[in-house]
Structure formats: C-alpha cells, structure tokens
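Two entries, shown back to back:
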Amino acid sequence: MKKLADFLYAIMAGAFIAMGGVVFLSLNNKIVGAFMFSLGLFAVCTLKYNLFTGKVGYLFNNDVKTYLPWCLMVWVGNLVGSIIVAELVRLTRVAPGIIEKSTKLVQVKADDSLISLFVLGIFCNIMVVHAVDQYLNNPHEIGKYLGIIMSIMVFILCGFEHCIADMFYIQMARMWNSQTIIALIVITLGNVLGGILIPTMRNINTKLKSE
C-alpha cells in the first residue's frame, strides 16, 4: 500500500508541475510566467508529493539499491501525472495557444545537441534541489518560500531543462518520437547529476569536518 501511495503522490507531483507549465505558457510576460510556474514546486514541497527532480538529489543520502528504483517509480508517476493534465487541457478552449507554444518549445529541444540538453539539465536540477533544500533547511519562514520562487524563476528564465516539465510539453504537443525520447532521457540524466551536487557536497563537507 505504501508503494501505491508513493506512486499516487508522484502522479500528483507531475500534475502540479504540468499545471505550472500551463500557466507559464498562458502568459506572455516570461518573468510573471516563471514566477507563477513556481506554484508547482510550492505545492510539491508543502503537500509532500513525490517529484523525481527533488527526490533524486538525495540519492546518496539513502540506500542506493532501493532508493534508485524508487526514484524511477516516481519518474514514471510524474510522467503519468503530466500526461493526464496535458490531455485534460487539450479538451479545453485554452488548448490551441498552449499546444502552439508547446510545439515550438519541444522543437527547440529536438533540434538541440545532446551535450547542450545534458548541461542544461544539470543546471536546472541544481536550482530545483536548491529550492527543495531551502524549503527543508532554511531556518527563516520567508526564506523557505523565497528559495523556491527564486530558484524556479532562475531555471525557467535561463532556459534550463526540467525533465518533468518537458514531459508535459511533449505530451501537450504530442511530439513523442525517437528524438524527443532521447532528449528526455539525456535531460533526466543531467537532472540526476545536477540534483546530487548540493546534498553530496554537504555530506563530504560534514565528513571532512568530523575527521
């Protein structure tokens, strides 16, 4: 039952990130859109949903043999949630504009080089895990939420690649093909590497200080 609950929470996380994508694509002002996109991670953190990009950062804080498969399950759940939201949005009057913008976004990713996607994935999840880490560890209440908002705005405005948001864009555009699937895998791997940086550096620093 716990695995089912974890999977359902992963679906909800994917859905909230997708809704962040909807509002981002609905607004012409990129700064306002980036600010509103942060609602997705705000909901994930406060409601304690399971988001792959947030959870994978703590890979080496757990038993890798059991935690990595759990993270992969979360990735699949996030995919399901993002697909559900995309298909529901497609049934509404706002769909044409969202589809058009999603198609342009996905085409940029499909035309990009794999090394570019990988590096942008690294940068993105440094920001996402920084946001999660601030929410978990910042002693100041305002700082917890500023950490989320500012980190997410940075990754959106810089064009960094977030694998769960990209799932939504790809489904919204219905552009699943070999190019976009490979791109999504490369972005995911970049997100993993970027995500583990902050927690791992903290663990190394703690170990060095204790010696």
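entry 2 starts here
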Amino acid sequence: MSSSSDSADTIVPDSEHRGLIASLPQLPRDLAQLARFDRPIGWWLLFWPCVFGVWLSGSGWQFGLLAWLLLGSIAMRGAGCVYNDITDAELDRKVARTASRPIASGRVSKRTAWIWLAALSLVGLVVLLQLPVRAQIIALASLALVAAYPFMKRITWWPQAWLGLTFNWGVLVGFAALANDRWPVAIAVYLGCVLWTVGYDTIYAVQDTEDDALVGIRSSALRMGGKVRQGVALCYAGAVALWAIGFWLLREDWVAWLTLLPVAAHLAWQVLTLDQGDPANPLERFRSNRWAGFLLALACFVVGNAGV
C-alpha cells in the first residue's frame, strides 16, 4: 500500500480536495483526477452559463432541469478533461504543474482513459435525452468546439477565446430548453460570457507562463506579457457591457442594469487584487469566479423573471 507521502506525490498541485482524493485507492484516485472531480471550479464554470440561459427564459426556478444540467456539467466537464489529457500528454510532461497528471506520468494508460471518457460521455447522453429536441441539437453542435479545443494552444495565442466559445455553450442550451424567441438576448449574454472566460482563464494561465514559453504552448497570458491586468480588465469590461446589452434587449429598463453591479464589482476586485508575483494569488482569483457566476445567475433570474 502506498504511504501518505507517496499518495501526495500522485496528486496534482492545484487539487482542492487532497484529503478525500488521497484516501482513495490509486486507480480511482487517478480517474477522479482525470475527470477533475477534485477541482469543482471547472464544472461550476460550465454549469453557471446553463443557469444563465434557463433563468433568462423567464420560466422560473426550474430546479429539476437545473439538476439535470448540473449532472451533465460534471460529467461532460470530466469527459472534456480526460480528452484534453489524452491529447496533451506529451505537452503535460514538460510543464511542472501538469507533469504529475495521471496520463502524463504514465499511471493511467490511454486505453483506460478512453474507456473512462466513454463512461462519462454515457452519463452526458442520459442528460441530453432529458432535454427538448431543440436544446439537444444545440448541445450536440458544441462537440466540434470541444474536439478542437486541445489543439488551439498549438495554433493560436488565444486558446482562451476558443475555451470561452466552448465553455459557455450552456447559455444557448439552457435558453433553448425553455424559449423559442428573443435569441439576441441569449447571444449577447453568451458573447459576454466568452469575454469573461478569456479574462478568468488568462488569470489561470499566469501560473504556467514560464513553462509554456519554454515548451512552445501559446496562451493569452503570454500574449499580454506585462499587461495581463489591463488585458483582463478590458475583457471583463467587455463582458459586463455585453451582459448589459442582453438585459436591455430583454427588458428596456435601465434599472435592470443595477443587477449587474455586484458581479461587476467582483470582477473589478479580481483585477485590482491580481498579483502575478504571488504563486497562490492567480489561482485564488481564478477560483473566485464561481462567485462571479453565482452573482450573474441572480441577475439573470431577477431580470428574466421580473413581472412574470
């Protein structure tokens, strides 16, 4: 049996649940890490856009639908991460933060990873079948974005933009599940979320700038160079502006914009307190976006359901 120190050596550095993950046998621990079950921030950031779309539709809380979408977010975020690690194994071995990932380190074979990917995708299929046909078609359209994402860091300095297109597709899926008109509203909010993702994933990419530069991985953090804070601020400002446009298209009432003040304040706090010299600071600011998503979800509910 592995010692506790050996267990710690097989857990990626940014795991959020070291005690729980370390208590698992080796293979379940590796599979959990492959699907990022130990790092829930990812599925929160995939789930919140689904909530935005559902609540913007003006159909009330819809807790049952949201429960299915949460399960789908966890499963499909996991499947996406497994696919990403399969395609990125060689690159991951060259980056300090990712070298201990299960496939990169050789603890899990690619065959086992593909089987795990299929199992997670099956859960996603079950969730997909709970949605109306229109929402199913829109959800399936995202698969091309998902398949291409791991290769973006090889061909563009802005893989974060592609991630934004992919990760926020839930806005359109959630909206389609309950609405069949006023699509400019959902599209404006979706595009705002794309900029939000470019901002927060640039903050995340700050952790790897030195290694990425050495191995030839491209990122918005490297592209922005010494102006990461200004670049993230511009992305966040653009996001809030697009969300405001979406809210106006839904409800021509400037008072509705007041609901965006909490999330705008939170994003401003991230920018003002970002410290690239502190290794822990960018990761903490990135993870705080689960609260940004929560605040925007509340705004979408208020604006989408006011007067209903």
